[in-house]
Each structure stands twice: as C-alpha cells, then as structure tokens.
Amino acid sequence: MEHIKAIKADNHEIFSRVYEQYHHQIYGFILQRTQSDYIAEEVTQLTFIKLWKQRNNLSEQLHVNVQLFGMARQVMIDLLRKEATRFKYEGESAATPFTDSLIDTIESKDLLRLMEQDIQNMPRTRRLVFELSRKRGLTHKEISQQLSISTKTVEQHIGKALLQLKQHLYSIML
C-alpha cells in the first residue's frame, strides 16, 4: 500500500517498479480472456496510463495489484465495446454478437471469481453464515439454531459480508 502513496505523490520511480512488476501479469490476464495479442498489448498499455492519470483517486486501503487488475478488466471491457461499435459502423455486424457475448462472459466469470475470493477471505464465522444464507438459502433463524448464535448476530454477519463485497466491487469499478 506504500506503492499507492508513492504513486499519488508523483513518484515516477515507484510507478516504473509497479509497471515492471505487473505489466507481464496484466498482459497474461487479458490475453487469457481475449486470446488476442493486440488487445492484450493495448489494454496493458492503457491500464498503466489510466493508473497514472487516476493516481489521485486510488484507494490507500487496497493493494496496487487489486486496483490495477480492476482497471485492466474495465479497460478491456471498454476496448471490446469500442471494437463492437466500430464493427457495427463498418458493416461487420457478424462480429458484434461475438464481442458482446465475450464481454458478458468475461464480466460474469470475473465477477463470480472475485466474489468467491472475497467470500473465502472473510473471517470464518462470517463466511459460514453468509454461505448458509446465500448458497444454501437458510433463514436467519435456521442459521442461528445451527450455529448456536443469536439471529441478531446472524444479521450482523450477513450485513458485514455484504458491505465487504460491495466495497470491493465498488473499488474494482473505479
């Protein structure tokens, strides 16, 4: 998180280190999803440009890699949407449904993967309460009986879990 502070303070050396550390990972992340060298190169470059331009809006509570991969994902989706629009106006409409479904698939899979990671990183009881509620569909009363905790405690765990997920998703969308 000290990288964020340094980048926010216009430290070019730290920014260069972050670039060296993550540009291959960002490239691979995008290449895996799009199977396009061109898009992977473009998105990688645009991601680091975005990181620098939006450095003052970075969260000091999140690691640089979390914010960087979130930016890369958003840049990729934006680029794919621009390509779909370009295809429409150039009369290549056959490519548009493919691009749209690719965007939807990427967004869904990434979102589910990120949410599952967030759930796994929750404290044990919070995670258990959340999974019993959202994955198994148990009521608050059923959960409280099963775990021998009050329904109020169940509500608090679910509220904290949802808040944690919302905060992380919000930081990704920046």
Task: Offer a few descriptive terms.
about 170 residues; mainly alpha; Arc Repressor Mutant, subunit A; 2 domains; 8 helices; about 80% helix; RNA_pol_sigma70_r2; sigma factor activity
- The CA-CA distance between the termini, in Å, is 17 Å
CATH architecture of the largest domain: Orthogonal Bundle
Taking the sheet with the most strands, its summary is: none
* β-strand number: 0
Pick out the low-confidence regions. 92-96
Helical element count?
8
CATH topology of the largest domain: Rna Polymerase Sigma Factor, Chain: A
Rg estimate, integer Å: 20 Å
The topology string of helices and strands comes to HHHHHHHH
- Domains counted in the coordinates: how many? 2
What is the H level of CATH, i.e. the homologous superfamily of the largest domain?
Answer: RNA polymerase sigma factor, region 2, helix turn helix motif
Q: Report helical residue fraction.
A: over 70%
Q: Mean pLDDT across all residues, rounded?
A: 83
| Percentage of β-strand residues | under 5%
Q: Name the CATH class of the largest domain.
A: Mainly Alpha
Helix/strand class = mainly alpha
Overall 3D form: globular
Organism: Sphingobacterium olei
Domain RNA polymerase sigma factor 70 region 4 type: 119-165
GO molecular function, one term: sigma factor activity
Domain RNA polymerase sigma-70 region: 19-84
